[in-house]
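Record type: monomer structure entry
Structure origin: computed from sequence
Chain ID: A
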Amino acid sequence: MKAWILASFFALSSISVNSGINEPRFHPVQHKIERLNLQSKTLDTYSLNTSQYFNKEESDSISNLCNILNIKEEYLYKVMFKECSFNHQAINKKSKAVGLIGFLPSTASYLGTTTEEIYNMTKLQQLQYVYKYLQPICKKYKLSTYKDVYLAIFYPRALGKQDDYVLGKNKSKTVLWNSPFDTNNDGTITVGEFKQKI
């Protein structure tokens, strides 16, 4: 099954744009992105030109990936920027998450790899695992908003839940690793608090 998923992505990634199947709906252009400042717990606004960070082949792969999964490219770009500032070798010192969407060691294991291997991958190689991670989620849920896409990556079990749904509490790893999301400092992170901060 794993080999089939990756093979399908390889095949779809190589389809000519002229076929109309993978025609990009969003091009790497300058747009504003807000990013959580972990020190001040405020949102900083950045103006980015994504073509400065992704070459044409990488951008085309992102277009194909999002086309297949039926999500907006802009949303995935925003998540990747917030997770790693487009540095595919970024490492979270607390959670040990690495890469474009912050692959946790447990997530990497689920995908049949390791965070060490992901760290040494190119952006194109990592995008194959971004697809592999999101593909089953997108089969079950429609990720129609930016917050949906980010929640799918951050805590997919919370998709479709109400804002009072608890993501973590009582000094769990979710709280310890993501304390800025605990907006009222009660030791609990809810879907509503997460959405408020992203």
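Annotation 1: The two ends are 34 Å apart (CA to CA).
Annotation 2: The first helix runs from residue 2 to 13.
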